[in-house]
Design brief:
Elements lengths: L1 H11 L5 H37 L2 H7 L5 H48 L5 E3 L7 E3 L10
Length: 144
């Protein structure tokens, strides 16, 4: 969340359209999903089986004559399904989302330079540790 707030400040300060800002945040959610799904499955399994063990429900299942595979099989099948989906997501969707995000953030950073250098005969200090003197501006493409 801290990264999102830092990016939000940088992006909104450039005067971009809300659709572009939302696109950046949706694209950036990809790597969060790739990390959150395996961790949530692990946490859920540990909490469920830990609670069952603490309440002696596992012992009750054993006392009825059932094998523990009766309990583990559905969890294992669900974990396998989520594993296959996560592999597909990490292989097919995440690289494209990361590439799109990098291109979009690169375009946004260049947009800031273009806007800051639009006043001919001025000194621009919008880039940290640099000062740019704009002698003239090309009216066709806005480049200094």
């Amino acid at each position: 969340m801290q990264i999102a707030v830092q990016m939000l400040d940088k992006i909104i300060s450039k005067g971009l359209a809300m659709s572009v800002v939302l696109e950046i945040f949706v694209i950036q959610l990809g790597w969060i999903v790739a990390l959150a799904i395996p961790m949530s499955i692990l946490t859920a399994a540990l909490m469920a089986f830990g609670k069952m063990s603490a309440d002696n429900e596992i012992m009750a299942v054993k006392a009825t004559g059932q094998n523990l595979t009766f309990l583990i099989t559905p969890v294992f099948l669900a974990a396998c399904i989520f594993t296959v989906l996560n592999i597909f997501f990490n292989d097919m969707i995440l690289p494209d989302a990361n590439h799109r995000a990098a291109n979009l953030l690169s375009d946004i950073s260049r947009e800031k330079c273009r806007r800051s250098s639009s006043n001919p005969g001025s000194l621009s200090a919008t880039i940290p540790n640099y000062a740019l003197w704009v002698k003239k501006v090309n009216s066709a493409d806005g480049r200094a």
